[in-house]
Write a structure and sequence with these properties.
CATH architecture of the largest domain: Alpha-Beta Barrel
Oligomer: single chain
Low-confidence stretches: 1-7, 27-46
CATH superfamily of the largest domain: Metal-dependent hydrolases
Number of strands: 17
Distance between the termini: 48 Å
Largest sheet: 7 strands, parallel
Helix content: 25-40%
CATH topology of the largest domain: TIM Barrel
Strand order of the largest sheet: 8-9-10-11-12-13-14
Number of helices: 14
Mean pLDDT: 92
Shape: globular
Strand content: 15-25%
Number of domains: 2
CATH class of the largest domain: Alpha Beta
Structural class: alpha/beta
Length: 443
Amino acid sequence: MSVKQRTGTFDHCDIARFFFWAGSLIKTTVLISMLLVVGMPRIASAQEIDLLLKGGHLIDPRNKIDSKMDVAIVCGKIFRVAADISPATAKKTVDVSGLYVTPGIIDMHTHLFAGTDTNSIAANSAGGQLPDAFSFRAGVTTMVDAGSSGWRTFPLFKAQIIDKAQTRVLAFLNVIGSGMVSRYGEQDVSDMNPVMNANMISRLYPKILVGIKSAHYWGDFTSVDKAVESGKLANVPVIVDFGEHTPANSIESLFMEHFRPGDIFTHTFSEHANGDREAIVDLKSRKVKPFVFSAQKRGIIFDVGHGAGAFNFNQAIPALKQGFMPNTISTDLYNMSMNTALKDMSNLMSKFLAMGMSLQDVILRSTWNPANVIQRPELGHLSVGAEADVAVFNLKSGKYGYMDVRRTKIQGNHRLVAELTIRAGNIVWDLNGISVPVWTLAK
């Protein structure tokens, strides 16, 4: 029995945990009766808010909130969301008036396995980027690595990067056991082991690994089919980079014959002049191919995966105008994309605003949608009891330019800038010091 149990004393985090637990299990009337037994005065005195975000406009698609709301955080969890919460109940209040408050952004396609192997593309190499260097400054609290490591190399990735990051890092496991080391390595069918892939996901790292990645295969559908077989064994989705086939393989066949509902087609708006990747928008008519709409209705997920060479306005703008919208917005962050047209997640989200997508749709595709795609429904929302991953954005007005990978640009009137990012209740990014007092000369 602990000291707290023997003495009957509780700190405010104990009380908060009790509320979150009890609220998920029992009805309000029963909870009130229990509170009377435990001792209402002790609990009431302990209900002190750690951090209060006051006066912001909350967009929380999962909870259908799009209005001015205050957000209270206790012990790293969302404690209360309401129109007016008194600052007198909070240890710390941050005025976010005029700003947009959202769930922490989820970037579902990144490459984070940074290391020193000079012969590797993205596994333990300079291709991977440290997550904390790009996440919080863009409002991102969760990053998902897209197949940089395979079952042989994931333990090193976890020890070297994931365990050391403040950012929540999840991962798709590459269908290739060694991971994304080289284009030649990704052709090695003998290193595609669905049983080992599934064991790694289901038995060893189910909290971190969210699916399987197939990429850069030069042949037929073998790599995709091995990934899907792995996904079936582990009950997880696959994400596929379906380029580099000459001549291009059929994406209609991919969507309708090889994919399951919930599987993910990334680099949705890619267009390759050399013909090694079939595009979703016909290159002559600039119309979305009819089977693409059918595939999305079937449950196929279309992910942006911008990258250094996979986002073309000739694909994206006609598609959006014809009513086709990607399910998820993601960066494909790596060394070749970070300083080009992509820049970061907030710039990419702003790019979709410039193309005519509503702010609400942009937030949905950057929070709750990716959370569902990777089967992590505890993420991407600000429900009471959820981990307090929060982004606060300033929607700036002006004249802004946004580029695609061909180095052409469009003009936009708005830009999302991350003012404040909160990870598990802790402020990890504060662009303009809105959470701290004004400096005065020390006495």
